[in-house]
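Purpose: get a first structural picture of the assembly so the mutagenesis plan has something to point at.
Setup: two entries, given in the order below. No constraints added.
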Amino acid sequence: MTTVTIEVDGKSLPAQAGEMLICVTDRNDIYIPRFCYHEKLSIAANCRMCLVEVENAPKPMPACATPVMDGMKVFTRSKYAQTAQQGTMEFLLINHPLDCPVCDQGGECPLQDQAMDYGSDDSRFLEKKRSLPSHDIGPLIATEMTRCIHCTRCVRFGEEVAGVVELGAPGRGEHMQIGTFLNRSIDSEVSGNMIDLCPVGALTSKPYRFAARSWELQNHPGISPHDCLGTNINIQTLRDQVERVLPIDNPEINQCWLADRDRYSYEAVNSEQRLTQPMIKDGRKWREVDWETAINHATAGITTVLNSGSGNDIGKGIGGLAAASSTLEEFYLLQKLIRNMGSDNVDHRLQQCDFRDDNIAPRFPASEIQIQHYNNLAAVLLVGSNIRKEQPLLALRLRDGCNKKGTKISAINPVDFDFNFDTVESDVAAGGQMVRSLATQAAHVAQIKSAELPFDIKKIADSNPGFEQTANNLVAAGENGLIIIGALAQQHTDASLLKAISQWICDTTGCKLAVLGCANSAAGWIAQCVPGDNGMNAGQMLGQNGSAGLRCFILLGTEPELDSIDGKSALATLNKAEFVVQISAFKSASVMKYADVLLPMAAFTESAGTYINCEGRIQNAKVAVTPKGEARPGWKILRVMGNFLELNGFEQITIDDVTEEINLTDITPSCRLVELQFHPTLSSGEKSTPDLMESDSLIRVVDMPMYRAEVTLRHARALQQTADNPPPAAGLNPATASRLQLNDGNRVKVQNQSGSATLELRTNDRLAENCVYVPAGFMETTDLGRHVRVTVKKIE
Amino acid sequence: MEIEFNTVRKAYNVCLPDSSRDQPWTLKSYQANGGYQALEKILREKTPASEIIEALKASNLRGRGGAGFPVGVKWSFMPRDADGQKYVICNSDEGEPGTCKDRDILRLNPHALIEGMTIGGYVMGATVGYNYMRGEFWQPYEVMERAMKEARQAGYLGHNLLDSGFDFNLYSHLGAGAYICGEETALLNSLEGLKGEPRFKPPFPATFGLYGKPTTINNTESFASVPAILRGNGKWMNSQWFKDLGVENSGGVKVFSVTGHVKLPGNYEIKMGTPFSELLKMAGGVWKGRKLKAVIPGGSSVPVMPAINIMKANMDYDSLQQNGSAVGAGSVIIMDETTDMVKVLERISCFYFEESCGQCTPCREGTGWLYRIIRRINNGHGTMADLDTLLDVANRIEGRTICALGDAAAWPVQSFLKHFGHEFEAKVMAMDGLYAASAGRAGAAANPANATADSA
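Result (C-alpha cells, whole complex):
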C-alpha cells in the first residue's frame, strides 16, 4: 500500500492509496453525513448523503465510494457540497412521516440529527406522502416501514454479516420496499443488530417498544453472562428498571455486534416469575418470610444434615451446584461454603456427563486463539459444535474469515447444522460414530505426518477413510488451524475421548485447540467450583436417581431438572434429598416441589461480578439496577450463609474482598490435558457405537436449545417466542422415518429405559440416520434421562 | 421466416441492409455482401489486436448507445493479456423512448453483430459474449438464434474458429422489460441474475464487470459497424473511409430513428453531419402540412430543441451539442405545432418515475416528485411556485445519482422549462379545468419559436 496525501477542507492528510475518502475523514474526525455507509458493511453508495466537492470532478462525489488519489482536493463543507447534501436531505424527508414524537428512534436517530443540520424547516412537498404497511417479522423487531429510507443496511447485514438473506428490497423506484419477500419472520440469531444499524425508526426493538425515550435512559456498562466471550453490553435503565441492552463496541470481542441472546435476555430480569421474597416450606405449604428467618431455616436444615454425619464423613452428604452463568465470586463462595463444611461435592458442569479426565484437566476450558483472530484462520474443525447457536458472535467471525480469507471449515456433528459459513466437509455422525469419525481424521493426520497413531485411537478409527480434506487442511494450516470442541462434544458420553483425540491431532499438526465452555464456566474452573479428588461431580451428585446418597443440596441459580442433560435423575435425586436450598432469581413449580428454602438472588443486571472469557480475559461487571424486591446479590447471600453456619473465612465486606481471595495470576488460556489419556469405554457401560443397528433401536441425539440452556433465558419472554425456540419435537431423518413407517407430524412416543416422552415428529434430513433428536431443557423431555438408546413408536 | 422490411427507410449497408438485398438476415446473403471477410482475415492472419484498435480509433466510431464514447478507446481499456475469463457484452436492451434502430439491426443484419462481437472477443481476449436483448424482442431473438446457429455451423462461433485456435461463444439473453437494464452495470447485474440496479463506479466494467471479470459492453450498432469499418469499402482496414463519411469528431454513418409527427417514420442510416432539415425532408416532412414545433433529437433523455434551434443543426455530436442537445441514441422525436409540451413532459416524467430502480435517493424520491408536480400543472392545479420547485428538484437530481437515469429524468424538465416555460405558465394561469378543454392549442400559438420555423 502506498501512502498518498490528500487535502480535505484545506487540511493535508495522509491516506492509503485506493481507500475510500470517508475512511480518511472518519479517521481524522472530519464529519461527513451518511446513512447507507457502515464500516462493517459493503459499500452501497445509495443514500447520496455523503456527497462532497472534489476539485476537478464534474459532479459531487460520494465520499463512501470515492477512492482517494494523491493530491486530491476535497471540500466537505463548501457551498457546493452543502447544496448537494441539503438536496439529498430534502429528498429523504419528502416521504418520511416525520413522526419523531411517537418514534422509538427519536433522540438517537441519524436522520433526525442530520435533518437538524442539513434539512430545511419548511417543506416544498405538496403531494401525498408515501405510506407502507408494516408486517410482523417476529417477536424481536418492530417494523414501521413508512419511515424507511432504503439505505439497505439491514439487507446487507443479513447477506454479508449474518449470512442469512431474510430481508431484501423487492420493488422498483418508489415502490421499492424493504421486506421479507414472503411475509416470513426474521429468525437470525443475531437479528437485533439490524435495529442498531437502521438509521431511522423503521426497525426498532419490539420488547423495548414505547418503554422509554432514549435520552431518559442511563447507561451502565456490563458483561453478558450467556456466552464464553464476555460480550460487552450497555445496560440501559430508566427509574431503576432495565429497559434495553445495546452492544458496546469492543473490536477484540464482540465488535459492534450483539447476539439476540445477549440483547433480549434482560426481559427475564423484569419478568413476573422473579423470586422477590425469601420463602420457606412449612410442611407442604410455602410462605414468604424475612431474610433472617429464611437463612436461619436454611442453616438449621443444613446443620441437621451435618450433625447426622460423623467423623470424616461430616459434610459428605452435602452437595453444591452452580449455574454456569454465575459470577467468579459466586462460584468461589459456593465452593468455599461447601468445602468449609467438609464436603468436596461442588460443580457447575450440569450439562456434562463424562468426567473421566477431571484429574488431568487443564485449569479452565479455553481457546488457545484469541477471539479477534477467529477471522484469520486457515482451517477449522468443529467437533460437536453448533457454533452458530452456541457462540453466535464467534460464528460471525468464522464466517468473515471463510468469506474473506478462505478459512476451510469442517465439522463432525450429529446434525449437519445449517451454518452461516460454508463447510468443506460435514461429517454427520452421532453417538459413538462421532468418536470414530474424529479418530479416523486422526489416522489421516498420522498418515500425512508419518506419525505413530496411538493404539487407542487406531482401534477406533475406521479403515474406510471417508472424508479426506479435513486432515489435509489441518496439517497444511499448522498453527493457523484450530479444532473447536463445542457443547455437543462436551455433553457427549465420550467427551474425554473426543478431547484427547483432538488434542493428539493438535499436538501432531501444530494446530490450536479451543474448548468453548458454556457461559462463564472458565470462571467456575478458576474459582475451583469443581469437585476435588474426593468429591462428587455434577453427574455423580445428580446421577442414578439419588443413589449417590446426597442428603442436602445448595443450588445457585440452577434448576437441575432443566439445566442437566439427565433431567430425570436430577429431579429424582432432588426430590429424594432431605433438604434443598435454592438460591435463584426465579420461581418455578418443579423447584417448589423439591426445595425447602428459596433465597431470592439478584439477576445479572443487579449484581456486580467478574467474568472470565475463553481467552482468559478478566472483566468486571457493575451493578446496573437495584435487585428486585428483597433479592440480594448471590455472593452476599453465600457470605451470610457462611456466617450463619459459623464457618471461617466469610468476613468479606465488598465484592472486591472476595475477588482478592481468588488466585487470578497466570491465567494462560490453554485447554490441553495435562497428560494424554484415552478412555475408550463408556462409564455408563452402555455401548454407544451402534455397529449393528437393531431395527427398532435408535441413538438419541440431545442438545440444549440456545434459549433453554439457562434459567434466565427460559424466562426471557421474547426470546422464548423466537423460531430458535420451537416446542420440543422428535427429529428423525426422513429415511429412518420411512423405515419406521412414520411421517412428519405424527405423534410419537420416544422411549428408553429411563422413561418416555410423547412428542410430535419432525423429519429433518440434516440429522444422521438411525438417530432421533430430542432436545433437553424442556420438562416434556426430562423423563428420557441420559440413556442413549431409544425407540420411537407412533401413537395411533 | 418472413421479416418486414418497411421500417428501414434509408440504408447505407453498414448496419442496415438496403431493400434490394434478398433476405439479408441469412448467412448466404451476408457473405455475398462481404460478410465475415474481416473475421476470416483476422483469424487467418492473426492480425494484432492493437492494429484493429488503432483502425477503430482512426475511424472515429463513437459508441452508438447514447454516451458516444469512442469504441476503439474503450476496447483498449481491456486488460487483454490478463489471466482469467473476460467478456464482451452487446447491449441490445434498446429501451430509450423513440429508438428502434437496434431492433432492425438484430432482425435484418444479425450476422454483422455476430461478426462484430467475435472480432471484439478476439481483440479483447474474451472467449464468451452475451447479447442482452430487451424482453419484448421476441422476433429479433429468434432471428439472432437462427443466425448464431448458422454462424456456429460455418465455424464463425464456438470452439477453435476456422482452425485459428481462438474460441468464441455467444449467448442470447432476454431481459424482463426494465429500462434501467440498458444501463451497462444494471445490465451486468441482471445478467448475473441479480436485481437490475446500476453499480457505482469505480470500479468500471473493464476491470470489474460481469462476475467481477473484465468486461466490455457496447451497443448493438457499435458492434455491427465494426466489420464494415475493417472492410474499409474494399480496402482492408481503410478506416479513413468510414471517418470521411462523417464530419470532424463524428465518424461514419449512423442510424437515426425518426418518429412522431412525420409522414415517413422509420430508421434512416445517414452520414453523420447531415443537416436536420435534410433528414426531415427524407422523412417526408411534418405530417398533415403542419409546422414543426420541437424536436428531441436523441431519445427522451436528451434536452428538447425548439424548431428554430434544430433547423440550424446538423445530425452529429458537435453540432447538436452546440445547439443545446445531444445525439444520444439517435432517436429523433418530431413534434408538430399542435403539441402540448406540458403533456409531453408529463408523459416523459411518468416514464422516468416508473423506470427508476429506486436504489439511490435523489432518483427514487425525485422522479416521483417531478412527475406529480407536472401532472398537477397539466391538470390545472399548479402554482407559479411549482415552476421554481420543478426546476430546483431537477437540478438536485442531476449529477447526484449513481447512474445517468437521474440526469435523464432531469434534462427534459430543465430543457422543457427553458424553451417552453411559457406553456407551463399558461397552464398555471388558466382557470381550473377550463384549460384542459382547449387541448394545448393556445400554448402552441403562443410559442415564439414557431414564428420563424417552417415545416419542411
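Chain A touches chain B at residues 43-49, 51, 58-60, 62, 65, 67, 84, 87-88, 90-92, 94-95, 124-127, 149-150, 169, 171-176 (CB under 8 Å).
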